Amino acid sequence: MNSKVVIKRTKHERDKDFISKLPDALLTHILSLLPLSDANRTRVLSKRWEDLCAFLPSLHFVTPFYNVSRFYWRIEETLDIRDGMPIDKFYLDCTKCSYCDYNRVYELLSSVVICKVKELELKFLDDRKVVRFCWDLFKTCNSLVGLTLNGEFVLDVPKDGLEKWNLSHDLGKTNRSFDGRHVPSNYTACPP
């Protein structure tokens, strides 16, 4: 004998969104298990979901081809919403736009330092402009354990910064001071 139990639900019960009723901490944890691109897509689900990605432990931003000022505004808004909450990893890719506002990037990095960032990855185009890495922001940032710079950067790092960050391990003895010298593309440094 083959019998099925059919439970009929009202339209109201079918239309209920049970997942949105979960606490923010649980939803954020669920989103952190998704690839960042998929987690970001959940912003369109409802007003409540719009800001949940701001609380993810890793933040990933890639400049669009258009509307760059709105892009910077969105990053600022995300960091403001976090209100100093620590960041595990912050990724900023400025290679897709024709113009990069380095002053705004500096302001964003100031906010990221306040959020006690652990890993930082910055990506700029090699052929546009040499970027001066703002060492003064990071010299007192004790939370930073990984730094990846992609593009043309100039580092003004004092000798004690070299010791803290082990920045000279791939560059040889000729570039040990870094004062105003170029750093090769795709460079990664970590404290010892």
Automatic annotation (TrEMBL):
SMART domains: FBOX. Pfam families: F-box. Signal peptide: none annotated. Residues 16-52 form the F-box domain. PANTHER family: RNI-LIKE SUPERFAMILY PROTEIN. This is F-box domain, cyclin-like protein. It comes from Artemisia annua.
